[in-house]
What does this fold into?
Amino acid sequence: MKVLFIDGIDSKGGMVNLGLGFLAQYIRRKHEVKILSIAYNTIDEIVSCVDKFDVVGFSCITSQFNNCINLAKLIKNRFPEKPIVFGGIHATAVPHEVMEHGFVSYVCVGEAEISFSALLDFIEGKLSKLEEVPGIVYRGRDGCLKFNNIKFMDDIDIIGMPAWDLLEREKSSGKRNVITSRGCPFTCSYCYNSTMRSKFKFKYRRRGVASVIDECVFLKNEGAQYIAFSDDLFLIDEKWLFEFAELYGRHVRIPFGIAARPEAVLRQESSLKMLKKSGLRDVWIGVESGSERVRREILNRKMKNIDIINAFRMIRELGLQSKSYNIVGLPTESLLEALETFWINIKANPNFTSHYTLMPYPETKVWHIAKSMELFNESENCFDDSGNIQFSETLISRGCLHTGKMNATMILALRHLWRSVFGNYAKWRVDYRVVHFCKFLFFSFHSALCRKWQQTK
Ligand code: B12
Ligand code: SF4
It folds into this structure.
């Protein structure tokens, strides 16, 4: 069969939708596959290709869903006979909502190598019953939605590396992403992993070192100058890490970065030393909030402040660069608690920081908390993340309206304060900081006026 995948990724660069890459790699053993992404093709270009394919599959995260569903509608109007399948993180979190759009034929929930492959067999007539296709949501003969249980793949090395030759990207960008594992044993409330673990018995699995090294060598030969490992947690399994460090140092040796939890950094000093010798340059750590209460009660991250500070210190002492990830606008968060996030970053002193407003993604635990407190507005494009990514001057993330203790304008004011205190990458200039400090004053004043006005109403 001929399968057209439409990749919802809407920003250009060297980093790609790896999940779709793995799926395409697995599927193309038996079928012809093409990937067109929204970032690199116009709607007309994509629609004009559909005719040549038997099945159209969309891959998207939440912020890309609106674009994808509108395009799917257009395709279904032009080619009513083509089955339309949705997969990826958003469809996995809310499959029933996706199926409510009557023109979507199937949703694949979770990892789809096994399920999509079986679904193609069914569409081709090689499998007689839809009930035999694992991990899909579909309309039964009675018109009601049915869900078949997921099947996870135990050995993910069977898949091989993502189909890099099919994934559109800016080849001139020196940066690539690689993922060595699936899943995470933790359940932070704002993360997709909390959704997966609450819905399914989700197992952590890692690729073999040899397969990962082959992929890195391939990317290096293609011109990659930096590899960002997309694993939720890289610092797991000392034996794997040592083997990886040795082979990466011998065969790849270009700088790379990893994400880690503070406790893992403190436990894995010797692995970090080995990894540094092989090319490790950056360690990214989610601080998220400087308030232990907010972390414990809202985020389900129970580490101590002192562990976070010590982890950053260790990274510095090892001669590595660090970046902290922080969130403002968390349910129940007060102004003082938001300021604690500034304080812990001053003490931890990372090389770089980032500061996002909370985007409560559907079906995560924090989404349930925010919904029960009526903290956000589920409008059509409340999951547009552009305010978060580009730090738009007028928007905070559309989903988040207040925290119960701080309103949206105060959250925006704090983001400006962040920029004036920590700067932003190369923008260490004084005028940049002064401008953001003035904006902080303006929005704080505005926020106080709004509060006063609401009280007098
Ligand atoms: C790699 C990655 C990226 C890449 C590519 C993202 C993309 N898909 O477009 C880059 C670096 C570009 C990126 C950016 C962002 N990301 Co990101 N990213 C990841 C990460 C770390 C790994 C994804 C991965 O490879 N997983 C492993 C593979 C095997 O799983 P998978 O992707 O789910 O794919 C499988 C199934 O979903 C299914 N499948 C996928 N597509 C399809 C299609 C069809 C037709 C079918 C049938 C099945 C199917 O089969 C795949 C193979 O089994 C995840 C975290 C995670 N663990 O998933 C976050 C994650 C996807 N990112 C997230 C976010 C929020 C972002 C940003 C918005 C962050 C920001 N504020 O800047 C940006 C968006 C940028 C943009 N404009 O698109 C969130 C999404 C949450 C949500 N509900 O939307 C995640 C889940 C992290 C989290 N905190 O929860 N990201
Ligand atoms: S935020 Fe990181 S540690 Fe927490 S569940 Fe998600 S991937 Fe795991």
User: Anything to note?
Assistant: Residues 430-456 form the longest helix (27 residues).
